[in-house]
Amino acid sequence: MTTTLRDMMRKRLETIEDSASVQDAARKMKDKDISSLIVIDRDGKPQGLITEPDLVTKICINDTYTSTIPNKQIMSVPLLSIDSASTPAIAADMMLRYNVRHLLVIDDNSDSDKSDPKHFVGIITPLDFARYEEFPNDEVGKDEIERMLEYYI
């Protein structure tokens, strides 16, 4: 049986409003022990992603007062997504190609609107690959995942 992202993704998606401060985002990441938050608008629709590297490269090095900067000002856009039925090798290749560490996992079998937050079913990061015990059986898949893990970890 082929391993899919559905098997290894984290299903709990943490969000933060685009108008909340980056200080609020950093605090929530610390409290939840996570490295990213999905930034949503007031209607709950995903707008972007805020990550630890966003906080470091866009806030910390500029010595910016964090409680005055809204998340929408530094979030990473566009959101990159991948189907839950995709293989880990495809996800690793996509992460390397676009130089990202987080992919939103969607369920293309869902009848819901693609912009509906319920359409997003999880998130996948390099840490999820490291935590998952079963790697693909094909050498191409293993090579992609090992390259991605070496690059990010």
Architecture per CATH nomenclature, i.e. the level-2 architecture: Roll
Q: Would you identify the CATH H-level superfamily?
A: CBS-domain
Spatial arrangement of strands, main beta sheet: 1-2-3
H-E order: HEHEEHHEHEEHH
| CA-based gyration radius | 16 Å
* End-to-end distance: 28 Å
Largest sheet: 3 strands, mixed
Kindly state the number of beta strands. Answer: 6
**Number of separate structural domains:** 1
Fill in the CATH topology: CBS-domain
Instruction: Write down the CATH class.
Output: Alpha Beta
Low-confidence stretches: none
Description:
The chain has 7 helices and 6 strands. It has about 150 residues and is α/β, with parallel strands linked by helices. It has a single domain, classed as CBS-domain, CATH 3.10.580. Strand 1, helix 2 and strand 2 form a beta-alpha-beta unit. The mean pLDDT is about 80.
How are the secondary structure elements laid out?
Blueprint: H1 5-8, E1 15-17, H2 22-32, E2 36-40, E3 46-51, H3 52-58, H4 71-74, E4 81-83, H5 88-98, E5 103-106, E6 120-124, H6 126-131, H7 139-152
Parallel strand pairs: 1-2, 4-5
Antiparallel strand pairs: 2-3, 5-6
Helix pairs in contact: 5-7
